Amino acid sequence: MSTHPGITTPAGFRAAAIAAGIKPSGKSDMALVVNDGPKFIAAGVFTQNQVFASPVKITRQHIQDHCLKAVLYNSGNANACNGKQGDDDALSLITQTANNLGIEPADVGACSTGLIGDLLPMNVMRPGVDALSSNLGGNGHLAAEAIMTTDTVAKEFFSAQGEWSLGGMGKGVGMMAPSLATMLVCLTTDADVTAEMAQKALGKACSTTFNTLDVDGSTSTNDTVLLLASGASGYTPSQEEFDAVVYEACWDLMKQMQADAEGVSKRVSITVRGAEDNDSALTAARCIGRDNLCKCAFFGSDPNWGRVLVAVGMAPVVMDPEHINVYFNGEPVCLDSTGTPHAREVDLSGPDISVEVDLATGGPGTATVYTTDLSHAYVDINSAYSS
Amino acid sequence: MSTHPGITTPAGFRAAAIAAGIKPSGKSDMALVVNDGPKFIAAGVFTQNQVFASPVKITRQHIQDHCLKAVLYNSGNANACNGKQGDDDALSLITQTANNLGIEPADVGACSTGLIGDLLPMNVMRPGVDALSSNLGGNGHLAAEAIMTTDTVAKEFFSAQGEWSLGGMGKGVGMMAPSLATMLVCLTTDADVTAEMAQKALGKACSTTFNTLDVDGSTSTNDTVLLLASGASGYTPSQEEFDAVVYEACWDLMKQMQADAEGVSKRVSITVRGAEDNDSALTAARCIGRDNLCKCAFFGSDPNWGRVLVAVGMAPVVMDPEHINVYFNGEPVCLDSTGTPHAREVDLSGPDISVEVDLATGGPGTATVYTTDLSHAYVDINSAYSS
């Protein structure tokens, strides 16, 4: 067991990391995660962007049989929008990895993160793959470090359940510093679960965790969340038990991403209730979370509730426009779509802001979205030349 | 005829303006536009926001019979989200105006722009209405000045067609400086047109002018575009002729709004072609125009075409994700979804940037959206306390 419990702590998993030379900084930039079995169950959730990177394209194909034995990671280059050469390069590295490990290329996935539109530096990555393959071990923390881009800390998770355990690593500052916004997550478990159990648990967890971390509506060409199950514990938890731990892992990693956001001075949670259904509530919450006027007001600690009403009023969902209630940090600032007497005095100077909006339909729908303010640092980071 | 040809130049129209005291600056803040007939045709296009201001609510009701004889304007207060008191105040000022002019309240409209959530200062607006009613004359320019908020110049239009003419005034920096984003436009004409002709011309013109000026997807609680026709020329142009002049007026005022945007260092036009249809092209163009990463890149003069692909890839329209072409200022930067060799050297340092995207569906759909960069000034303006 490694000193940092994480992806290599569950039985059946090894990992390696290396500074191959993709990043000009010389920091580690490649990692390999291997599932030694006896089972090789894999579930995945990928970007919804119609434009997706070569590693996403290939990993989607390789995971169709719900089986992956290894995943090759790199940071510093997204291998997106590189055409056929991008596909060829990704597949070539996957094949090299498979050959080194004595497995089939179709059982290897790949995840990349970095700048879009530059070809992979194959001259440094080929020796990188060889070095990774021959250095597999129990220190998953090194892999978590190797996938970092603008992240300032490695993001890891571990939960022991007695008979079985689940570890995780993630990178990304969500959509928070989206110049390198890709979110990569790898969860490993020694639970003996079916592919169906794994996909069900992962899909459900993503929809209420990573999928609610939303700063500007951007979803990267490379976003990939994988769950690998070795079955090495020989223990099969119930679906409910498994769901709960996978959810906990996703929630914990999402909150680590939000906390590590660059260019952010406020962490903002936006809860919509009183919607017709949960989907409507999520749509409305996203409209507020993506609204630049609201986000500028949060940056200025300005309880400008009128902007929340303007933003939510644009949401294509049912609401009672004359009876909307808004609360900032629990204080009512707008009741029945009208400002309260002391609304403009509510203190939003702290680093955390909660916004609650009741759409007053009488329906049970509710959802929460996690976003940030729109700060000068955000503009700085994202206007830097081809960052 | 006034020295500035505008809304009072077409026969049958008078206007007045006054500094009633709504604005702390002491600048003019109320205006009245009167149609003396003989016809009183009115067409309107209003905000699509589900949350809309009291004047929008009432003017929508009063224009249902396609007849307005006067419109009362004020800046400095949006009269939005003020509940029943907001409705009562707006209706009270409308009734006072109607009584002064000897017409029915149902033939008077109202438009407000300013901060959301403060009650109208009726103590200064009541005497304001009386002063306006008794000072009607031919200087429409003063009215154009009175409806300004963050605008730095009054926005006017005039076109003489021989037998008839059309004037206009507008305020708003589009969605460009959206802290006070309301767009108000009033067009006047002495053409003898039917209500159907007027509404058809106005709706069509708005969809390809004001509706394509889009910086952050926000549409205000108060947006109102009105077209008033007096019939005083006795001349009835063809629908095509009328459409063309109304379109020209809307286009000209829209470009004036874009040019007067605060917090903007780049004017960006985004054209999408090769879409299945024009609606799909518009949706895709909006996705790019609203994307903060693209907008930050424009601010930084950064030809970061990868962000354009990420943004357009999120659009819920048909595209060929592996064959998208992108051009910056006419230079190909991405062909078949792959960067061109000199893409990162394209010069975007000028104040105008054109982005063209071909979705490669083979379809005829095309649309252009006008947007801006995301600058530090934008953040400054919109994070100022309850601006």
UniProtKB/TrEMBL annotation, chains A, B:
MF terms in GO: L-glutamate N-acetyltransferase activity; L-glutamate N-acetyltransferase activity, acting on acetyl-L-ornithine as donor
Residues given in the record as substrate binding sites: 149, 171, 182, 262, 382, 387
EC number of this enzyme: 2.3.1.35, 2.3.1.1
Subcellular location: Cytoplasm
GO biological process, one term: ornithine biosynthetic process
Site (Involved in the stabilization of negative charge on the oxyanion by the formation of the oxyanion hole): 113-114
Pfam families linked: ArgJ
Cellular compartments per GO CC: cytoplasm
Catalytic activity, as annotated: N(2)-acetyl-L-ornithine + L-glutamate = N-acetyl-L-glutamate + L-ornithine; L-glutamate + acetyl-CoA = N-acetyl-L-glutamate + CoA + H(+)
Top EC class of this enzyme: transferase
Gene3D superfamilies from the UniProt entry: ArgJ beta chain, C-terminal domain, L-amino peptidase D-ALA esterase/amidase
Positions of the record's site feature: Cleavage: 181-182
Residues of the signal peptide: none
Active-site residues annotated for this sequence: 182 (nucleophile)
InterPro entries: Arg_biosynth_ArgJ (IPR002813), ArgJ-like_dom_sf (IPR016117), ArgJ_beta_C (IPR042195)
Pathway where this protein functions: Amino-acid biosynthesis; L-arginine biosynthesis; N(2)-acetyl-L-ornithine from L-glutamate: step 1/4; Amino-acid biosynthesis; L-arginine biosynthesis; L-ornithine and N-acetyl-L-glutamate from L-glutamate and N(2)-acetyl-L-ornithine (cyclic): step 1/1
Keyword terms: Acyltransferase, Amino-acid biosynthesis, Arginine biosynthesis, Autocatalytic cleavage, Cytoplasm, Multifunctional enzyme, Transferase
Major localisation: cytoplasm
Family indicated by similarity: Belongs to the ArgJ family.
HAMAP family: ArgJ
Assembly, per entry: Heterotetramer of two alpha and two beta chains.
Function noted in UniProt: Catalyzes two activities which are involved in the cyclic version of arginine biosynthesis: the synthesis of N-acetylglutamate from glutamate and acetyl-CoA as the acetyl donor, and of ornithine by transacetylation between N(2)-acetylornithine and glutamate.
Listed name of the protein: Arginine biosynthesis bifunctional protein ArgJ
Natural source organism: Corynebacterium poyangense
Gene this chain is encoded by: argJ
